[in-house]
């Protein structure tokens, strides 16, 4: 994997101030593209989340022509298969 560019984390909280969601965006080294979106647990570990369609990671690959492909992965890095697919 190439070196990560800069990262942005977004944390959501409910009315009781408990964290309900932690999403991390990883950008390309030149910050021109989002390369990965991750759902993190309270402990900072990857975990499946409905915000990512049930996957833990969305990897966005861009080819030389600028075409993009979305790859959904489980927390362990295996391909994500939603129930019923």
Please render the helix and strand layout as text.
Layout lengths: L6 E7 L5 E9 L6 E6 L17 E6 L5 E6 L12
Antiparallel strand pairs: 1-2, 2-3, 3-4, 4-5
Spatial order of strands in the largest sheet:
1-2-3-4-5
Any idea what the shape is? globular
The overall pLDDT average reads 86
Structural class: mainly beta
Sheet with most strands: 5 strands, antiparallel
User: Which H/E pattern describes the elements?
Assistant: EEEEE
Poorly predicted runs are none
- DSSP summary, beta strand count: 5
Could you walk me through the main structural features you see in this protein, from its secondary elements to its overall organization?
The chain has 85 residues and is mostly beta strands. It is built from no helices and five strands. The chain has strands at residues 7-13, 19-27, 34-39, 57-62, 68-73. A five-stranded antiparallel β-sheet has the order 1-2-3-4-5, with no helix packed on it. A hairpin with a 6-residue loop joins strand 2 (19-27) and strand 3 (34-39). The mean pLDDT is 86.
